[in-house]
Amino acid sequence: MITPRRLLLVNGPNLNLLGTRQPEIYGRDTLADVERVTTAAAERHGLEVRAIQSNHEGVLIDAIHAARLDCAGIVINAGGLTHTSVALRDALASVDLPVAEVHISNIKEREAFRHFSYIEEVAAVHVIGEGVPGYARAVDLLVEVVSGRADG
Ligand SMILES: O=C(O)[C@]1(O)C=C(c2cccc(Sc3ccccc3)c2)[C@@H](O)[C@H](O)C1
C-alpha cells in the first residue's frame, strides 16, 4: 500500500510553451496533455498528482521540499535545468522520495550540452526520448519503486 497516495509532477522552464514550436523534437502535445497523461497513469494506480510547472528554479525547489510532507514520489522533467542546476539536484536529494526523471526528447542524441544530467544520479527511474507517453511509463516504473520501499 502506497501512502501518501500522491505523486508530485514537476515540469521546468519553458515547458509551459510545449507544443508551440519544434514539433519535430517535442511533438505537438501541450503541457496540459502532459498533465493529463500523467494523471491518468497515476489514477490507474489509485494515486493523484500534484502538478507544477515553473520557469523559476526556486519555485520548483520549494515544491520539491513541500512534497516530502505529502507525496510518495516525484516525476520531473526539469527542462534546461537538468543540465545546469546543482541546487535542483540537491533539492531532489534532500527529500527522501523516489524520483523519476523524464525527458520528451532523447537528450543523449542531441547537442552535447544536453547529454549530462545533474538529476540522473539522484533519480531511480529514467525515461528518455519516449515523448509525452514517457511520463506514463515513468509513473508505472516509479510506482514499482515506491511499492518496493513500502514493502520494505
Ligand atoms: O526533452 C526534454 O523533455 C527536455 O527536458 C526539455 C527541454 C526543453 C527546453 C526548452 C523548451 C522545451 S518545451 C518547448 C519546445 C519548443 C517550443 C517551446 C517550448 C523543452 C530541454 O531543455 C531539455 O534539454 C530536454
TrEMBL record:
It comes from Microbacterium phycohabitans. CDD domains: DHQase_II. One of its GO terms (molecular function) is 3-dehydroquinate dehydratase activity. The active site is at Y26 (proton acceptor), H103 (proton donor). Substrate binds at N77, H83, D90, I104, S105, R114. It catalyses: 3-dehydroquinate = 3-dehydroshikimate + H2O. Catalyzes a trans-dehydration via an enolate intermediate. Pathway: Metabolic intermediate biosynthesis; chorismate biosynthesis; chorismate from D-erythrose 4-phosphate and phosphoenolpyruvate: step 3/7. It is an enzyme of class 4 (lyase). Coiled coil: none annotated. Homododecamer. Its EC number is 4.2.1.10. This is 3-dehydroquinate dehydratase. Belongs to the type-II 3-dehydroquinase family. The keyword Oxidoreductase does not apply. The record marks R21 as: Transition state stabilizer.
